[in-house]
Structures are given as structure tokens and as C-alpha cells.
Design a protein that fits this description.
This protein is an alpha/beta fold. The chain has a 6-stranded antiparallel beta sheet, sandwiched between helices. A 5-stranded parallel beta sheet has the order 8-9-12-7-13. It has a two-stranded antiparallel sheet with strand order 10-11. Strand 1 and strand 2 form a beta hairpin. Helix 11 crosses helix 13 and helix 14 crosses helix 16. The longest helix is centred in the middle third of the chain and has 41 residues. The radius of gyration is 31 Å and the shape is elongated.
């Protein structure tokens, strides 16, 4: 009767987990935890682990580790073939070891380091299309009992569920990335860009955008080159009552004065040598919509008077014509220059500046909103990886630290270029620091510590210094501790306190 009850519990748990796998693809770790926890309980194990194979280096990393020593276990990884789990992964076969002292495949080093004795192990491969992608192992059956074939068969079922969860989650992520890319492409085809942010400073600017968008007031967007001023202008238009009408862009620095005047206001046939037909200007094209005047600080003085009249009266004449044209246009201007200084220097009309500066918006540089960097970096990575058909899933911890510490004089545009370059040249599943090619700057080295409290700066130095030592010794704690001249137990404590992870390990 007791055995029947156990089997009933197993069946009910299996049904619950199957439903969970097919309903929630967003939190893979939570699903895997549930599977391993259920497998441990139903096989009466004291502790358990789920290891995933990293195809990049063919090592096994502890994704889930349950039991009294679970957190300590997750700092380790195994070579393919190392220990019972490594043997199972290498041979793609299940294994019962009820007396580890008699089995030479058992790796005792981890147990000694964390103070845990393993007497029996049940381990099974996780398979996707007959390929081993990981291992689930149960340690020490409670009550000094022995694992049996019934335990093994049920654990194999649970391992299949875990493999299915990993497969479904990766498929879901790939599809979601493709949907995001298509949505981004749709926006691009319409002339708009996807705006990505996470920082409070950008949140404040976008809240301001929502308030000013419904009005027709002129907006002046200020900020360094590459911060995303055009994207802010797009958001103002898209949130306005003019969103279904044209959004026309003009770069005032891209053309010489004579051509710029024609580009803005149009011309009639014969107005100049190449004017072989009448042509509407950007202001006419933007009628009932929005015109975005980028780099307005570069507008020649000769055109500034005509621009002032357009802003005041919404009236102008085509080049070579005396007929006035009236348009209903909302004006958004942007510049990366100190426009107040230009006014003081006599290079920009003060009356035009005051007309433009009705609603000023200041877009902060990327170095002042570092919270946006991970979001932007992953957005660019997913897009470029899909476009180039490369299976790159993310950034190593060291690479992300480099991104976060770099000064980014070119702001978001420079970050996008760096990520695109890294995806193209990378040969790994994750972007490494050397892929980013950002070593050229002393600014990066200095800004790594800028704005940080003393404690945070010291911890950052410790992380870099200790990780370098661990890397030199293949993450052998004993050898690294010897080089650092500290106790191995203290090194293990530092690794845990600083949340140091080996390349390829997940948090």
C-alpha cells in the first residue's frame, strides 16, 4: 500500500510538472528547481544537483543544487568524464552507485572542500534528441537505504521532463527574439526605432515626453552625439495627436546652405541651375504632422531668419517664388552643441533660440545612466545575432563589467557598434571582454571606479584580482589560494561573498 501511494505521488507530481513545463517558458530556473526538488523528494534523497553541459568548453556547470551544501556546490564545475556526473554525461548512460568508496569514478574533491560525505549516488542524463545536455544526480538515499531500479526509472522520467523544459525555454527564447526582431524591423520600416531603457533618468524624461506630446508646442532636445535625441523626438510624435501623420526628418548639418534652404522650403522651376521642376520642401511634406530638425545648432545664420518666421507664423516661400505657403506643423529641434554659447558668440540668433526653447528636454549621456547599458547591450546582441545567424546568448560577467565601466564618449551609438562588432568576431556562445575591443581607453580603466564608494571600488578590485588568479589555475581553489597567500577556506568565502562565477556559469 505504501509503494502504491509513492507511485501515486510520483504520477501526480509528473502531471503537475508537465503542465508547468507547457505553460511557463519564461522562468526556466524555477521550472528546473521544481523538477529537481520533486525528484529528490520522491527518490528520498538527501541532496541533489542538476548540471548542464556548456558546449562551448564541454564542461558541466551546477545549475541547481539542493541540500544543506547546495550554495557551496554551485561554485564548482566538472570536466566531461570527471566524477559520476561527468561519466554519465560522457557516456550518456544512467548510473546507480550505492557504495561510492568502491567506485573509482567518484570525485571526492568537491565533498571534501564543502564538508559533505556522499555514500550513494543516482545519476541520469538529460537528453534532447538522444544528445546529453545535462545530468540530474541524487545523493544519499535517506535512512541508509539503497537506490534501486525503480528510483532510476522514475529519475529518468524526471530528467526527460527537465530536458524538455530546457528545450522549450530555449525555443521560446529564440522565437521571442525573432518576434522582437520582426517588431523592431516593422518599426524601422515605418521609420521609427525601438526605445530601450531601464534608468530612472530616462524614465523621468519619458514621463515628461508623455506630458508634452499632446501639445503642439515646439520642443528642443539637447544632448551629446549618440544619446538618442532622434528617438526621443519619435516618441513625442508617436504619443501626439499627429501620430498618424508624417514625421519628417532633416539633418541641418548634412547639406550646404543653398541646398538646405531648398530641402527645407522647396523650390520652383528655374530657381537655380539644376531646378528643372517645382519641388516641395520638407515643411510642406510635414503638413499636419511633425518636422524634426536635427543639428539645429548648425543652421546657417542666413537661414535662421527664415526659420524664425516659419516657427512664428508657419508661413514661408519656396526658393525662387514670392507665393506664401502656410503649413500646420509641429516642430521638434535637436542639437549636441551648447546653443546658449552659440547665442553668446553671435553664431545663433537669440530670438530663434527663445522660440525653439519652449519645452527643452535634456537627454543624459550613457555614462550617467549606466543602468541602461545591460538592457541596450542585450537588445543589440539579440538583433545582431539573429541577423547574422550566430548562436550567441549573452555576455560573460567580465564583458558586462567592461561595458558598465567604459566611458562611452559616443554614447548609445558607440555601444551599438561595439556589440555588433563583438557578435561578428566572437567564436563563443557568450561575448568575452576581448571581443568588445574596448581595451584602448585609459578612460575605461579610470571610469571603472568613478562614482563608486570606497567599499564598492575595493570589492570591484578584489573581484578582478581574485578571478584572474582563479583563471590562471583553472579555478582550482587550493592552487589559487596558495598563489594569493591565503587559506583555501577564506578564498572560498571570498568567492561566495563576491558572487564570483566562472566563465559559462549561470548565477
Amino acid at each position: 500500500m505504501k509503494l502504491a501511494q509513492v507511485d501515486l505521488d510520483r504520477f501526480e507530481t509528473l502531471i503537475e510538472i508537465n503542465a508547468l513545463i507547457n505553460s511557463d517558458f519564461s522562468d526556466l530556473r524555477a521550472v528546473l528547481y521544481r523538477i529537481v526538488e520533486s525528484a529528490t523528494r520522491l527518490t528520498e534523497g538527501e541532496a541533489s544537483s542538476l548540471l548542464l553541459v556548456n558546449p562551448e568548453n564541454n564542461r558541466l556547470y551546477f545549475e541547481i543544487a539542493l541540500g544543506a551544501k547546495g550554495p557551496q556546490v554551485q561554485q564548482f564545475s566538472l570536466e566531461m568524464g570527471e566524477g559520476i556526473a561527468g561519466w554519465v554525461a560522457q557516456h550518456n548512460r544512467s548510473l546507480i552507485v550505492n557504495d561510492t568508496d568502491e567506485d573509482p569514478r567518484h570525485q571526492r574533491d568537491i565533498g571534501r572542500q564543502i564538508g559533505y560525505t556522499t555514500s550513494s549516488i543516482l545519476a541520469v542524463p538529460m537528453r534532447v534528441k538522444d544528445r546529453c545536455i545535462g545530468v540530474i544526480e541524487i545523493l544519499n538515499k535517506k535512512g541508509n537505504k539503497l537506490f534501486d531500479q525503480d528510483d532510476l526509472q522514475w529519475l529518468e522520467i524526471f530528467s526527460n521532463q527537465a530536458a524538455m523544459a530546457v528545450h522549450n525555454a530555449k525555443t521560446f527564447q529564440r522565437v521571442r527574439n525573432q518576434v522582437d526582431l520582426l517588431q523592431d524591423q516593422v518599426n524601422t520600416d515605418k521609420g521609427y526605432h525601438t526605445l530601450v531603457w531601464a534608468s530612472r533618468s530616462m524614465e523621468e524624461q519619458l514621463n515628461l515626453v508623455e506630458r508634452i506630446a499632446p501639445t503642439d508646442s515646439t520642443v528642443l532636445v539637447l544632448g551629446e552625439s549618440g544619446v538618442g535625441k532622434e528617438l526621443i523626438a519619435e516618441q513625442i510624435h508617436l504619443n501626439s495627436r499627429r501620430s498618424s501623420k508624417p514625421f519628417v526628418r532633416v539633418n541641418c548639418a548634412a547639406l550646404p546652405p543653398t541646398l538646405l534652404e531648398s530641402e527645407l522650403f522647396g523650390h520652383v522651376k528655374g530657381a537655380f541651375t539644376d531646378a528643372v521642376a517645382d519641388r516641395r520642401g520638407r515643411f510642406e511634406l510635414a503638413d499636419r504632422g511633425t518636422i524634426f530638425l536635427d543639428e539645429i545648432g548648425d543652421l546657417p545664420l542666413a537661414l535662421q531668419a527664415k526659420m524664425l518666421r516659419v516657427i512664428q507664423e508657419r508661413t514661408f516661400e519656396r526658393l525662387g517664388s514670392s507665393d506664401s505657403i502656410t503649413v500646420d506643423v509641429r516642430i521638434i529641434a535637436a542639437t549636441n552643441k551648447d546653443i546658449e554659447q552659440l547665442v553668446e558668440d553671435g553664431e545663433f540668433r537669440s530670438d530663434l533660440y527663445y522660440r525653439l526653447n519652449v519645452l527643452p528636454l535634456q537627454v543624459p549621456p550613457l555614462r550617467q545612466r549606466r543602468e541602461d547599458i545591460p538592457e541596450l547591450a542585450h537588445f543589440f546582441l539579440k538583433r545582431v545575432a539573429l541577423e547574422t545567424n550566430k548562436k550567441i546568448t549573452g555576455f560573460s560577467e567580465e564583458a558586462m563589467e567592461l561595458l558598465l565601466s567604459f566611458d562611452w564618449p559616443g554614447n548609445v551609438r558607440e555601444l551599438e557598434n561595439a556589440v555588433e562588432r563583438a557578435v561578428v568576431i566572437s567564436r563563443h556562445e557568450t561575448i568575452l571582454p576581448e571581443d568588445l575591443l574596448l581595451h584602448g581607453g585609459s578612460a575605461a580603466d579610470q571610469s571603472r571606479y568613478e562614482g563608486k564608494a570606497l567599499k564598492d571600488g575595493i570589492n570591484l578590485f578584489k573581484k578582478q584580482f581574485i578571478r584572474a588568479a582563479l583563471d590562471r589555475h583553472g579555478w582550482n581553489h587550493t592552487a589559487a589560494a596558495r598563489e594569493l597567500d591565503i587559506q583555501r577556506s577564506y578564498l572560498s568565502k571570498l568567492v561566495k561573498d563576491l558572487n564570483l562565477k566562472r566563465q559559462g556559469e549561470t548565477s
